[in-house]
Amino acid sequence: ARYVGIKVDRVIIRTMLLSGALCGLAGLLLVGSTNHTLTTTIVDGRGFTAVMVSWLAQFNPIWMILTSFLLVFLGRGAGEIATNFGLNQSFGDILTGIILFFIIGSEFFISYRLHFRKKASRQPAEQAAQPAEAHAPAPQPEAKEASAAAEENEKKEVGADV
C-alpha cells in the first residue's frame, strides 16, 4: 500500500475510529432499547455469533448481512419449535448448534480435499530377505556410456581445480 502512495498509518487510525464509533452506536442501541440499564447479560453471546457470521460469509460484507439474517431466522424458528412442542428453551439453542455444526462441517469438506492412501501389499518374507541388488533392473548400455562420460567430466573438473 505504501508503494502505491497510501498512508497506512492514517488508514489504520481512521478504520479504528470508524469501527469504534459503530460499536459504540450498537452498544447505545442495546443499552437504551429495553431495560435502559447495563447488565452482564446484555451482550448474550453476540460476539461469538458475529465471528461465526463473518466466517460463514467468508468475510464478504454483503454475504455477512444475508448470513446474519439466516442465523436470526434459524434462532427464531428453533425457539418457536421449542415453544410449540413444549420443550425447554435451551432446545432451540441446541437445535441451532447442531445445524451450524453440520454447516461448518460441510464447509470444511468443501474447502479441503481428503486423500486416502492405499495400503501397500506385503511382500513375502523370502523376497524381503534377498539383497536389494537382486531386485534392481539391469543397467542399460546407454546408461553405462552416460555414467562414464559423467565420470570423465568430474575428472576434468577436479584436474582443473588442482
Give structural attributes.
disordered C terminus, mainly alpha, flat, 162 residues
Task: Please characterize this protein's 3D structure.
The protein is mostly helical and 162 residues long. It is 70% helix and 0% strand. It contains 7 helices and no strands. The chain has helices spanning 8-33, 46-56, 61-84, 90-111, 125-129, 132-135, 141-161. Helix 2 packs across helix 3 (61-84) and helix 3 (61-84) runs antiparallel to helix 4 (90-111). The protein is flat, with a radius of gyration of 33 Å.
Rg is 33 Å
Unreliable residue stretches = 157-162
Strand and helix order: HHHHHHH
Strand fraction = under 5%
Give the count of helical stretches.
Answer: 7
* Class based on secondary structure composition and strand pairing: mainly alpha
Characterize the overall form: flat
Biggest sheet architecture = none
- Write down the oligomeric state: single chain
> Quick one: how many beta strands?
0
The average pLDDT is 78
Helix content: 55-70%
**How many angstroms does the end-to-end distance come to?**
53 Å
